[in-house]
Amino acid sequence: MFNKIYDWVDERLDIAPIWRDIADHEVPEHVNPAHHFSAFVYCFGGLTFFITVIQILSGMFLTMYYVPDIVNAWESVYYLQNEVAFGQIVRGMHHWGASLVIVMMFLHTLRVFFQGAYKKPRELNWVVGVLIFFIMLALGLTGYLLPWDMKAVFATKVTLTIADSVPLIGPAIKTLIAGDPTIVGAQTLTRFFAIHVFFLPAALLGLIAAHFIMIRKQGISGPL
Amino acid sequence: MSKRNVSRRQFLNYTLTGVGGFMAAGILMPMVRFAIDPVLKASASGGFIATSQKVSELTAEPIRVDYTFDQIDGWYESQVTNTAWVYKADDGNIVALSPVCKHLGCTVAWNTDKEHPEQFFCPCHMGRYEKSGVNVPGTPPSKPLDVYETQVKDGILYLGLLKPHKGA
Description:
The complex is a heterodimer. Chain A is an all-alpha fold. Chain A has helices spanning 2-13, 16-23, 43-62, 73-82, 87-114, 123-145, 150-164, 170-178, 186-218. Chain A has a single domain, classed as Up-down Bundle (Cytochrome Bc1 Complex, Chain C), CATH 1.20.810. Chain B is an alpha+beta fold. Chain B folds into two domains: 1-41; 49-163, Rieske Iron-sulfur Protein. Chain B has helices at residues 8-35, 37-40; strands spanning 49-54, 63-73, 76-88, 94-97, 109-110, 120-122, 127-129, 147-153, 156-163. Chain A: Keywords: Cell membrane, Electron transport, Heme, Iron, Membrane, Metal-binding, Transmembrane, Transmembrane helix, Transport. Chain A: Component of the menaquinol:cytochrome c reductase complex.
């Protein structure tokens, strides 16, 4: 059944080269934990991506119930967590995944750093990786406000005060992020929501694509 | 034991597909169940809602009865006001009709079309119903108006669930 469908599509579109190009390539021996157990350090980049996929999926499902509005945000989060089946699991995946993705990304960065894998010709990929790091931190920051509880609001006030302390342009940055010069409220919440679910993920996907294309082009760095 | 040989490649394919499928299912199952929850949730509706309409004041002429109740919509609780068209039928029974047109869901009203008096009229597509709620043939609606279950307590009209019209 599956083979027949595959053959039907392949006959018309010749898809074998496409998936082969993505999936069919050898893992070098020094990267394969089956050969050297210490090669597990090469897994952290893939784990970061794996958790990112879970974050995107669980986030998509959470927006089925979540409302970015100061009156309803907290109530909708309470409802989806306590009244909807598996709400605690789905929100838990997003909550814990947010921390775990930072951990995995940090371990991945440490591996690349201490192996010197960022050196020529891979400098550009390091730069893109650092940009991904910043995007991830921004995702964590914007997502933190969305439940609209006391912790979220005061954490965001702290963030805005930090932004405010930038010389000269600080107040402008603060207003740009919060949507209002003094209030942390309705406009802040919708802004953070839009940034969290549209702008940052779009930037993230673009950067991840660049990250992966570069690693395929250059190959993984050689053994130590 | 069968003598069929499973090659190393096949064995790895099976185990990796199995483990991968198990992980994917573990991730997706809670999310899908989470998403389809509204379909599987038992609806807690039912029970009669009191109106402010005294039954003794009802006549053969349909009147508009608004009634208000508490509605729980997920995390949002509010008071919702719905309408029924109520009159006393010739046999003395109280008839309470839904104002929702069976064509495309607009709101019908009694006696608002000058060319066709003594009928329920929907302004969206000129749908019409007899006083009994039965749709007038040749107008857009294909079914009669839904009917409320009614109850009388202490001379006050109570409205229950909407049921399909029994006539026609």
